[in-house]
Design brief:
- The protein has one domain (2-131).
- Helix content is 69%, strand content 0%.
- The chain is built from four helices and no strands.
- It has helices at residues 2-36, 39-79, 86-97, 113-135.
């Protein structure tokens, strides 16, 4: 019975890695698209979003299937308890009490809610990258590593006649 738990731990770790890498890749490709309007970057971002979506849908459907199977076992156990072997009854009780979820080290649950969380994370990363880029630009529009050659701004400069 520990085999199911081991499978869940390994599968959850893989799913967690997929979601984290997909979110990072999606943010990088979206940022690249916004910077250069390069269509392949947008397609790569969409494929990363699709990867996250498939992983999340897989986790959600696995959880739903296990819940359905648990209900079927519970109904069978209740209706035909006298005809079932005692070892099978113990296995059925274990399955009815098993709280399964695809959660890598119980940090987060990989299900449909992960899609929204990944998109929010990617958007946050893009905003952060824009803020970093904007902090490098001076009022002249030149990179801060080169000296600014703009005339100083003062409120009392008379307009030219």
């Amino acid at each position: 019975m520990r085999l199911f738990d081991y499978y869940s731990e390994i599968g959850a770790l893989y799913a967690g890695i997929c979601v984290v890498m997909g979110t990072t890749a999606m943010a990088q490709h979206l940022y690249s698209f916004v910077e250069s309007w390069h269509i392949p970057s947008l397609l790569n971002a969409f494929s990363s979003w699709y990867w996250i979506s498939l992983t999340s849908i897989l986790g959600n459907s696995m959880q739903e299937q296990i819940l359905k199977g648990r209900e079927e076992v519970r109904n069978t156990l209740a209706s035909e308890r006298s005809q079932i072997n005692t070892d099978l009854i113990e296995t059925a009780k274990w399955m009815c009490n098993w709280e399964w979820k695809l959660a890598p080290y119980n940090l987060f649950v990989v299900n449909n809610h992960m899609i929204i969380a990944a998109c929010g994370t990617a958007l946050t990363q893009i905003i952060f990258l824009f803020q970093l880029k904007m902090s490098e630009v001076t009022t002249c529009g030149v990179n801060r590593t080169s000296p600014c050659e703009c005339p100083p701004l003062t409120c009392f400069n008379p307009p030219p006649h």
